[in-house]
Design goal:
The structure holds two protein chains of two kinds. By secondary structure, chain A is mostly helical. Chain A has helices spanning about 5-20, 25-45, 55-70, 85-105, 105-145, 160-175, 185-195, 195-200, 210-215, 225-255, 265-295, 310-320, 320-330, 340-360, 365-385, 390-420, 435-445, 460-475, 480-485, 490-505, and strands spanning about 420-425, 430. A two-stranded antiparallel sheet of chain A has the order 1-2. By secondary structure, chain B is of the alpha/beta class. The chains are: A mainly alpha, B alpha/beta.
Chain lengths: ~525, ~350
């Protein structure tokens, strides 16, 4: 069940209606907790990209129930039936840890409780996400050294959203340990915070400090700005369903065989990926924020026009804000931050970005992506010291040059992010590794050397220009208020017409949100 | 409070009206624009329909088996001039054929006289196509969706135990699952989901080459290859042929929803002042479903192994369902003969 599917609309209308009909805060939280787990279950029943009705989730649950009644439990159990157990396990453990830290009498015990939380959370995440990656890497390294070895990889299914809810869960334990937050006595509150469905699977990574106070207080319908929520959801829907999904085929075609494309087509392929991943993820975040707001809860802002960033430091203040600030507050600062020599600071910065890269996926290409961003952040820090002393002309020029250079660099790093191995459909063997794909793309994208003659239609270019202009106007707040000033009836009519046009451009087949895989 | 609730209700109604208006208008733009196999014939038909007075509608058995040039020539010689178009589409089984037929008959050619409908087997699932493919979605208007949903839930038009709807073997879809899929596909069709995206995709990558009109732009396209059965195809043909020879004249009543679909199309045919004729193609692979007498429609049945033995000779077949070029010529001649006979009898009446 995706935010962009009909079944989500039906699900949400039921959840929304009952939520606001319930009077007590505990009843509402219990209801939303149940709804969140139903939403989560719908993901593993059909998979996040499931759009075929032979996997219609309520019917699958019905079949599973029939099996239990018939004494044959498990006959219809879907692959990820145990995913919620991991989620519950993580929640229970952090609840106990929070109480333990709160009751600990000395610093040593507090630390021990924290280590339990970090150890279990990172252990579980590490096992599900990185076990095969490390085993593969060690295996390859041993082969490289000519040592005898055999593979010990396992067939592991990664529970949906584990990277996100583990970080949320950890933020709670760390904040309690740092005495920024009182331990939560109510298990319901913590379980609700971790599994709240709008942000459960792909963020924004909500901090316990900002969300738990909201949970404690009864939400008021009068405070919900319905028009703003609907507008934000609509924008998110257009970003994901109309833009990201329509550039995806161009990107997929290009990255499946970049060796056949011209320099111009390479630029279209790479820039379209930048568009795709932004619209996909920020679209998801917009819809998540809007959904949560309609239920009375506020989530963290996740994107702020990152492609108009003046430099790479600015980019990281605007891109996946909930992750970058999490990494800053819980990793970079824990490593020592900038409380040391320049070299110490840069080491911390690089380590943070490398681990940030690895958080995205178990692959060396993600590590390189993080590393390149880390290097760019270091270079930018050094550059800032020189640039401040430069003449007036450069101060003026950098306003224009900065965003272009920053976007170009970000696109170069996206090449590593996107470069996944190409697997032959028939033989199931890897025909091109991720690094080979990245090398071929960068040859054209950075060195301007032609790989082949294949081109994309010029419509792609105009599509990008039109999107860029619209996005720039939006960043200048051109569309920020007019829809607030029109009468209600006109807003309702425009929303209806807007949806009709949006549906027209939505592809019949959805891909799952890119960040679901992380 | 009531005033507030009414105001909200009114806003929801305005929203729904605008949405419905928007999707209806967008849906009316080039309805077959990106539907594989159908778009080319539809575009040609739209431009040239006034030239035709006879249209064949059916599956690949019609598309690959009826040669309009031969049909028109024989009729003209017999003093019954016709100008026919073959709107056969590969894999177009009921109720998809009914959707296309109704689209043709909603804005018919002024001189349309004959609508010859091939009877296919009603397929309540998605004929092996992905449910969200363009070809599966485009015909899911409400009458068709409701028909296939009822076919799933009440296959014999009789009440069934509702628990049966949910029964399924592991890994298989239950009837309720399939019905829900049809409902979802109907929403996809109604909201025009994918239409603009398909146009954009065609622009970015180009469309695959298609030739459904055939060499003479009359809609007939011979079966591909050399038209000779070999290997497994030949083996299956012989098995099915032997099976059918045991009961050469076997007739089964038409399935209830095929009948309903056909009756609906026939009502459209009558409304535009044309005469409908039902065609049963010479096949060995499928049952011969006969329409109910109440349909009051002439049936040209070429599935009789004794009466039309020449259409079941290996030399004229490409498989159990289709004939080759020679077979198409022969089949069309037989259709023309039946047509002339019927025309004569109906005029003399």
């Amino acid at each position: 069940m995706l935010f962009v599917q009909f079944r989500f609309v039906i699900f949400f209308l039921v959840v929304f209606g009952i939520h606001w009909l319930l009077r007590g805060n505990t009843a509402r939280k219990t209801w939303l907790l149940l709804a969140s787990h139903f939403f989560y279950a719908c993901l593993f029943v059909g998979g996040p990209d499931s759009a075929s009705a032979d996997e219609f989730p309520p019917l699958t649950f019905y079949h599973a129930l029939q099996d239990v009644l018939a004494g044959k439990p498990g006959a219809h159990l879907p692959v990820g039936w145990w995913f919620p157990l991991v989620l519950w396990g993580s929640t229970i453990m952090d609840w106990v840890v929070g109480l333990g830290i709160g009751q600990a009498k000395d610093e040593w015990r507090r630390k021990m409780w924290l280590f339990v939380s970090l150890g279990v959370n990172l252990g579980v995440l590490g096992f599900f996400k990185y076990y095969n990656f490390f085993v593969d890497s060690i295996h390859d390294a041993l082969i490289w050294f000519g040592l005898p070895t055999s593979k010990w990889t396992l067939q592991i299914f990664l529970p949906y959203g584990i990277s996100f809810y583990t970080f949320q869960s950890m933020s709670y334990s760390i904040d309690v340990y740092r005495r920024r937050l009182e331990p939560v006595k109510s298990f319901l509150d913590l379980a609700f915070f971790i599994s709240f469905f709008p942000q459960l699977v792909a963020g924004p990574i909500v901090r316990a400090m900002s969300f738990l106070p909201q949970v404690a207080e009864k939400r008021l319908w009068a405070r919900v700005d319905v028009r703003a929520c609907l507008t934000l959801f609509f924008i998110g829907f257009v970003k994901k369903a109309c833009i990201s999904e329509n550039v995806a085929p161009v990107v997929d075609a290009f990255f499946s065989d970049p060796g056949k494309y011209s320099v111009g087509a390479t630029f279209i392929g790479v820039i379209f990926y930048a568009v795709q991943i932004y619209c996909d993820f920020s679209g998801y975040s917009d819809m998540a924020i809007a959904t949560a707001r309609l239920l009375g809860y506020e989530l963290t802002l996740n994107f702020n026009y990152p492609y108009f960033a003046a430099n790479i430091t600015d980019f990281w203040r605007r891109w996946h804000i909930s992750l970058s600030t999490w990494l800053r507050d819980y990793l970079y600062i824990s490593l020592g931050g900038n409380r040391g020599s320049k070299l110490f600071t840069y080491r911390n910065l690089l380590l943070t970005m490398l681990l940030g890269g690895l958080w995205h996926g178990a692959s060396w290409t993600f590590v390189i992506w993080g590393g390149l961003h880390g290097l760019a952040l270091i270079v930018h820090r050094e550059y800032e010291k020189v640039a401040d002393k430069a003449g007036d002309w450069w101060q003026k020029a950098r306003v224009y040059v900065g965003p272009v250079l920053c976007f170009y660099w970000v696109c170069i790093t996206w090449v590593f992010f996107r470069a996944q191995p190409v697997i032959d459909n028939k033989t199931k063997e890897v025909t091109h590794t991720g690094f080979e794909i990245a090398g071929t793309v960068l040859k054209s994208f950075v060195l301007f050397q032609k790989n082949g003659d294949r081109d994309f239609d010029s419509a792609c270019l105009w599509f990008f220009v039109a999107l860029g202009v619209l996005h720039w106007l939006a960043s200048r707040q051109v569309f920020a208020t007019w829809w607030r000033r029109i009468p209600d009836w006109l807003y309702a009519a425009l929303l209806g017409l807007g949806l009709a046009v949006a549906f027209y451009f939505v592809p019949q087949h959805y891909k799952a949100f890119i960040y679901f895989q992380f | 409070m009531i005033k507030n609730a009414l105001r909200r209700l009114l806003l929801i109604l305005i929203f729904l009206a605008a949405l419905a208006g928007g999707v209806t208008w967008l849906g009316s733009l080039d309805p077959f624009g990106e539907v594989p196999m159908v778009r080319e014939k539809w575009a040609y038909w739209q431009q040239h329909k006034e030239e035709f007075d006879t249209v064949f509608i059916g599956t690949s058995r019609t598309h690959r088996g009826i040669v309009p040039a031969v049909f028109d020539e024989l009729n003209a010689k017999a003093g019954v001039p016709t100008h026919s178009f073959n709107f056969g589409i590969d894999g177009m089984f009921p109720p998809e054929d009914a959707y296309v037929a109704e689209a043709i008959l909603r804005d018919p050619p002024k001189k349309l006289k004959w609508v010859i409908l091939e009877l296919g087997v009603f397929l309540g699932d998605f004929e092996g196509r992905p449910p969200k493919s363009v070809r599966s979605v485009y015909w899911h208007d409400w009458p068709r969706t409701w028909l296939v949903m009822r076919n799933n839930l009440w296959p014999k038009k009789r009440p069934v135990k509702w628990q049966k709807w949910f029964e399924a073997k592991p890994g298989e879809a239950s009837d309720a699952d399939v019905a829900m899929t049809h409902l979802e596909v109907w929403l996809t069709k109604t909201l025009n989901i994918g239409r603009g995206a398909n146009l954009w995709r065609a622009r970015a990558f180009g469309r695959p080459e298609e030739d459904t009109l055939g060499p003479h732009k009359e809609g007939f396209q011979p079966t591909s290859g050399d038209g000779v059965m070999r290997g497994d195809v030949l083996k299956i043909w012989r098995e099915k042929f032997a099976e059918r020879q045991q009961t050469p004249g076997r007739i089964t009543p038409m399935r209830p929803y095929t009948q309903e679909s056909l009756d609906r199309v026939l009502s459209f045919v009558r409304r535009c002042g044309a005469q409908g004729i039902v065609l049963i193609a010479p096949t060995t692979g499928e049952l011969r479903g006969y329409p109910d007498k109440a349909s009051k429609v002439p049936v040209f049945d070429f599935c009789d192994l004794q009466k039309y033995a020449e259409l079941f000779v290996e030399d004229v077949r490409t498989d159990t369902g289709h004939v080759n070029v020679r077979g198409a010529d022969l089949y069309t001649r037989r259709v023309s003969e039946e047509f002339l006979k019927y025309n004569q009898s109906s005029t003399s009446r």
